[in-house]
TrEMBL record:
Alphabetized Pfam families for the sequence: FtsX
Entry-linked PANTHER family: INNER MEMBRANE PROTEIN (PTHR30287:SF1), MEMBRANE COMPONENT OF PREDICTED ABC SUPERFAMILY METABOLITE UPTAKE TRANSPORTER (PTHR30287)
Main localization of the protein described in the UniProt heading: membrane
Coiled-coil annotated residue ranges, if any: none
Lineage: Bacteria, Pseudomonadati, Pseudomonadota, Gammaproteobacteria, Vibrionales
Stretches assigned to the ABC3 transporter permease C-terminal domain: 251-364, 691-799
Stretches that traverse the bilayer: 246-266, 299-321, 341-364, 385-402, 408-432, 453-475, 685-708, 740-765, 777-797
Originating organism: Enterovibrio gelatinilyticus
Name of this chain's protein: FtsX-like permease family protein
Length: 806
């Protein structure tokens, strides 16, 4: 009978009005962790799959020399599937024309990842067989051939089997591209093109389990001119997706922090409201063991309800987050596994340990004397378990995200801002109190500033809540704006290279006649950076492998009278009198400064240039960009070809084919497929970030609602006292509205300043984006703060004023 009474009382307490935010907060934590951990595994799978698809394998060995047969046998012994590829440039001859082409000689099992689409006359194919020749679409017009015609590649005559529709490997160097053709690896020797001294590159593709790939790497030591490539090196969208992952983890932690704050506030208020009740029960003979059983039953029911609700909502939330990514997620989808089902309740339990445990320990330890001395300074004895309960989730957070710089920046900003905002808020209110004349506002300000510690905590909590909401939304907005500027919908997707100077005017006119959006024309010269301030880099760094990558290869140089519109001048002035403008990244890597003298070599001719300026260059925007831009007078006499980029839609392939046919010496690099893929990924990730931001807003609103609900409940006794002293209902109502209106406005304004400072730190050191102000938030956030507070107060104030009607 006694056990039944304990359960019934616990059940009634569970549905007490003060406890539902605990269930909601715990369920929110479980739902977020479940959904995001389940989706994270799938997204990670997608990122890995996309990176490997663009490599056509799981792992690639790139070499400038072929591997010996015994080494290939050694690599095959690891168990990983392999495929070889030989790349070379050569002339292709048809009966009516000839063209310089880039040949990929592949094996029949190519590609090991991704899809190869080859259009023959009757069907789509996905493999290259011996004796076949597959051509890029524009080569049909350049060579004036059709399917079934023959083309000579070196000493071998091959029959055109069809057209290359798409291939998984994507190249991003617009300065070394020729129209592509595919042949079988077995036809290379017969062609006689690959000879000692030929410019050939070799690729060895591998597919297998991670252990097999690790064995492949371990079984071979790289020589000069060789490198391993995996999905982390080959995906152009890696930076965007890395930032998405950082935003995802940051959002999850902030949601958990806001939910934990909701738990703490709700439980603290519950303890305050139940201290006298339990003291009375203890005075009637109840032991602490009985109180512990009573509270443990409540906590058990709370956790069970929150777990069921949270896991159910989490499954639905994961589905919503997955919808924007439907086109890029693998099919069939991998299963959740057991981890999300365990991780969600586990994180909620870790958060609940200090948030619920510490106040409830205080409730258990409350002495029976509290029933007689409610207003005295009776205190429960300190319990060492409180420190342990706090340490467990803190240590778990450190272990989980010790290397997440973005997260720790935000947490540090929260601690700093909460203290600053609380103190600043109290100072502002005290200043206003001395200058306000209206009685209602004076009474409201007096009430707020009566207890500086309590008022500061309330203002700091409100301001921090609004600040967190602003940070989450502004960071999402800045990330999306950065991506849209990086690759806007009208970004160029075709490069025309190797345009001779005498053809440039006609070529540009042809593009303009078709109303095609294009870039300016850039002259291109190939050369090397070989010295700094009179010293040769070969002498400064004798070991070639230790030199910066830009010092080990030829670079593309250009010259201009003015700064390119898509570059930003950071230091100095535009090059003149033998000067050069240097890109910021290479300047930092090589330690270059304004006034340094650089030595360059172009066509075996050496010349020097003085650094006049440092530029910021966005390499991801698919526009012509360069490490070095010279003063025209310095290099314009050197032989150069010209480059133009422009944008074509998929339906404008006939224009591209016409340009290729009429200007056969101009190399056209068609990046439309790659651009479309990146745009699709950007759009899908953007939608997912918006869903995450919306979820964080819900968590923040729950925290705000809890804050206001608790502070309003604390006014109940004061309202009765005011009424007893003769205050009218209208005066009390006006005072309440004034009090919460002032708190909302002050906290909203403080949140704006805090959000701007936090965003500046996040943009500079967290996601490494340009720092900027957000003027829109200066108007929106205070207005939103006042609106949300007024809506909440309007919803709850009727219950507070209800006793005044009698």
């Amino acid at each position: 009978m006694r056990k039944t009474l304990v359960w019934r009382w616990a059940w009634r307490e569970l549905f007490h009005g003060q406890l539902w935010p605990i269930v909601a907060a715990l369920a929110l934590i479980i739902a977020c962790v479940f959904a995001l951990s389940a989706l994270a595994g799938r997204i990670e799978s997608v990122l890995t799959q996309q990176g490997r698809t663009m490599l056509a394998a799981d792992l690639v060995l790139r070499s400038n020399q072929p591997l010996a047969p015994e080494i290939l046998t050694q690599l095959d012994a690891t168990g990983a599937e392999s495929s070889d590829q030989t790349r070379f440039g050569t002339m292709a001859f048809s009966d009516n024309s000839m063209q310089l082409i880039s040949v990929k000689a592949v094996e029949s099992n190519y590609p090991l990842r991704g899809a190869l689409e080859l259009q023959s006359e009757a069907e789509l194919r996905d493999k290259v067989q011996p004796g076949e020749l597959w051509l890029e679409e524009r080569l049909f017009s350049l060579l004036e051939v059709e399917r079934g015609d023959t083309v000579d590649v070196g000493d071998v005559t091959l029959t055109v089997s069809g057209m290359i529709v798409s291939e998984p490997e994507l190249s991003f160097n617009p300065f070394s591209q020729m129209p592509a053709a595919l042949i079988h690896q077995s036809d290379v020797d017969a062609s006689g093109v690959v000879r000692p001294g030929s410019r050939v590159s070799y690729r060895y593709f591998f597919r297998g389990e991670d252990s097999e790939l690790a064995a492949v790497k371990a079984s071979y030591t790289l020589d000069e001119g060789q490198r391993w490539i995996d999905e982390n090196d080959g995906d152009r969208t890696g930076d965007m997706l890395d930032r998405s992952r950082g935003y995802l983890s940051l959002t999850v932690v902030l949601v958990i922090i806001m939910a934990a704050a909701t738990l703490l506030l709700t439980c603290q208020h519950y303890v305050d409201s139940r201290t006298q009740t339990l003291a009375m029960v203890k005075s009637l003979g109840a032991q602490r063991s009985w109180v512990r059983r009573w509270l443990s039953r409540q906590l058990l029911m709370l956790m069970l309800m929150a777990t069921v609700l949270g896991l159910g909502v989490g499954a639905g939330l994961e589905f919503l987050l997955r919808l924007p990514l439907a086109d890029v997620l693998p099919s069939p989808l991998p299963s959740y596994g057991i981890l999300p089902w365990v991780l969600g309740p586990l994180v909620a339990l870790l958060v609940a340990l200090p948030a619920l445990g510490i106040p409830l320990i205080r409730l258990v330890e409350a002495p029976a004397m509290s029933v007689l001395q409610a207003q005295s300074k009776v205190r429960a004895r300190k319990n060492p378990w409180s420190w342990l309960l706090t340490a467990v989730p803190v240590l778990a957070l450190v272990a989980w995200s010790y290397d997440n710089r973005l997260l720790w920046l935000v947490l540090a900003a929260l601690v700093l801002m909460l203290s600053l905002l609380a103190g600043l808020g109290v100072m502002v209110l005290r200043f206003a109190q001395k200058r306000v004349k209206r009685p209602a506002f004076k009474l409201a300000l007096s009430r707020i500033t009566r207890n500086p510690a309590s008022s500061g905590a309330q203002l700091g909590a409100l301001a921090t809540s609004f600040m967190l909401l602003s940070i989450i939304w502004l960071l999402r907005t800045d990330l999306l704006e950065d991506w849209q500027q990086t690759l806007p919908p009208n970004a160029p997707n075709v490069f025309a290279l190797n345009i001779a100077k005498q053809e440039l005017g006609d070529y540009v006119s042809r593009i303009d006649e078709n109303n095609i959006e294009r870039s300016e024309a850039y002259p291109i010269i190939r050369g090397r950076l070989i010295g700094l301030n009179g010293q040769n880099y070969a002498e400064l760094t004798p070991n070639r492998e230790e030199r910066d990558e830009a010092l080990r290869r030829e670079l593309n140089f250009t010259w201009r009278d003015t700064l390119p519109s898509h570059n930003e001048l950071l230091q100095g002035s535009w090059p003149s009198e033998g000067g050069v403008s240097v890109e910021e990244g290479i300047a930092q890597r090589l330690g270059l400064r304004l006034g340094d003298e650089l030595t360059f070599s172009v066509n075996s001719q050496e010349f020097t240039a003085t650094i006049n300026s440092i530029r910021d260059v966005e390499w991801r925007n698919m526009k012509p960009n360069f490490y070095f831009i010279f003063d025209p007078e310095l290099v314009e006499t050197l032989p150069a070809n010209w480059l133009i980029s422009f944008r074509l839609e998929q339906a404008q392939s006939d224009i591209l084919n016409g340009l290729g046919r009429d200007y056969p010496t101009v190399t056209l690099l068609d990046l439309r497929a790659m651009s479309s893929r990146i745009q699709a990924i950007l759009s899908q990730v953007s939608l997912s970030l918006s869903v995450l931001a919306g979820l964080a807003v819900v968590s923040g609103l729950l925290l705000l609602l809890t804050l206001l609900r608790i502070t309003l409940a604390e006014r109940q006794r004061e309202i009765m006292l005011y009424r007893t002293l003769g205050a009218s209902k209208k005066r009390i109502n006006t005072t309440l509205w004034a009090e919460y209106g002032i708190m909302a406005l002050v906290s909203g304004c403080m949140a704006v300043g805090g959000a701007e400072l936090a965003m500046a730190a996040l943009l500079k050191w967290g996601v490494e984006l340009p720092v900027r102000l957000h003027p829109e938030v200066w108007l929106v956030l205070p207005t939103l703060a006042v609106g949300l507070v007024f809506l909440t107060v309007a919803w709850m104030i009727r219950g507070l004023l209800e006793p005044l009607k009698r």
